[in-house]
Amino acid sequence: MCNLYANTTSQAAMREIFEVMGQRDHLGNYRGQTGIWPKYEAPVVRISDDGERELVEMHWGFLTPQVSKKTGKPIKPAAWNNARDDKLRSSGLWKDSFLNRRCLIPGSAFREAKGRNPATDYWFAIKGSDARPPFAFAGLWRAGQPGIDDETGDWLTHTIVTTTANELVKPVHPTRMPVILDEQDYGTWLTGSAENAAYLLRPYPSGQMRIVREGIGITSDDASAGGD
Q1: 5-225: what fold?
Q2: In 150-221, which ranges are E strands?
């Protein structure tokens, strides 16, 4: 389960990498984020109503209503920040978005924690000539949160698709890891058929990844703080 990631890629680089025209960049002045938590906003690449790629900010995690078991009254909504690859075409929470609203979620690293009291944090990134080469998670998005009555009910939200852990991630999180897409597959994920998109849901090769930070309480991937 991924509940923390970073995106330190510059706005200009995101437009180039994800082939987004300047007028389709709706991020304002984006400064990069060394730690992105569920319910907070982050950049997402989606297909607009007129069929063009655009950069927008969305809150992380599809929201579903909850009620208190004691009082029966509404409480803070649950945020579903991960979608299992084997549930995308069967779960009512994910199915429509998988068929109609797939997106790219720009990232530069993601964190998994191991152990408890205290847990050790491990930040994973892909290999490349840069300290944190940019990449994209496979994502889903939706507009509006059914059953949520306050202002959060109007949120645009995204979720990260997860798959089986590879050999690098498995010692830290034995079962799951985010789906990282190859750059040549961005178009297929965004606009390809459900069958072709499903084919991309596989672990990223462990030999093309590395652990870039490790330690207790490392809850942001601030490369300037050291730890590589």
Answers
A1: hypothetical protein yedk fold (3.90.1680)
A2: 156-164, 176-178, 180-181, 209-216
